[in-house]
């Protein structure tokens, strides 16, 4: 891919991920991984890890919007936040040692499950 | 305790870069009685400290490509703000149906390519990462 087009593709990936994550308050990663992998040709594990990096600024920006609209009380939700942080450390360590193909299959299963849930039961 | 467990499950998937929010948000609404907008806000805010930890671990494992911070993450943050503002004024139902179908299609493709094996190009890249 020519350099200019690559930059356009990267910006387009970013814009799509941000839109999904902001609208749905999460799940941008589920879009970001296949885009990095398929559209930009990155390795499976690099796509997963870099997705976390891409989503962080999106979450900060979106969180500010959600928070300022008064949708959130931090003290009531501390247990969830602690759980997420602990799980995040565990999941990050797991990604390194997991087989790339196993990672991809689990991820595909999760996407389909989440998709079915959102399409039919939301 | 249920809250902590829901968070833990979402965090594991999120730390692996598998979309923790797509798991955490339904867990919070289905089992913890959160409304959709609150669940989304909790997910967004919990993700900030989690991803800081997660990025540190991934970086040490050599899995992060920092150049995407500028080229992908910056436009993502910009469109994220616009979409969040839109989400505050929107009923979630229709959107999640669209996104759900979108995920099903993507998931089926992902499943196919995972089972059939990576393309030769991807395999070459993953060897390079391992070196």
Outline the structure in words.
The complex is a heterodimer of chains A (122) and B (131). By secondary structure, chain A is mostly helical. Chain A has one domain. Chain A is built from five helices and no strands. In chain A, helix 1 packs across helix 3 and helix 2 runs antiparallel to helix 3. Chain A is globular and about 45 Å long. The termini of chain A are far apart. The mean pLDDT of chain A is 84. Chain B starts with a helix and ends with a helix. Chain B folds into two domains: 65 residues, no CATH class; 39 residues. In chain B, helix 1 packs antiparallel against helix 2 and helix 2 runs antiparallel to helix 3. By secondary structure, chain B is an all-alpha fold. In chain B, 82% of the residues lie in helices and 0% in strands. Chain B is built from six helices and no strands. Chains A and B meet through helix 1, helix 2, helix 3, helix 4 and helix 5 of A and helix 1, helix 2, helix 3, helix 4 and helix 5 of B.
Mean pLDDT metric of chain A: 84
Topology, number of strands of chain A: 0
Shape of chain B: globular
Proportion of β residues of chain B? under 5%
- Sheet having the most strands of chain B: none
* Count, helices of chain A: 5
Oligomeric organization of the protein chains: heterodimer
The domain count of chain A comes to 1
- The helix/strand class of chain B is mainly alpha
Low-confidence stretches of chain B: none
The tally of beta strands of chain B, per DSSP, is 0
Share of residues in strands of chain A: under 5%
Unreliable parts of chain A: none
Mean pLDDT of chain B: 79
Output the helix-strand order of chain A.
HHHHH
> Largest sheet of chain A, if any?
none
| The number of domains of chain B | 2
Give the ordered list of helices and strands of chain B. Answer: HHHHHH
Please provide a brief summary of the model.
The complex is a heterodimer of chains A (122) and B (131). Chain A is an all-alpha fold.
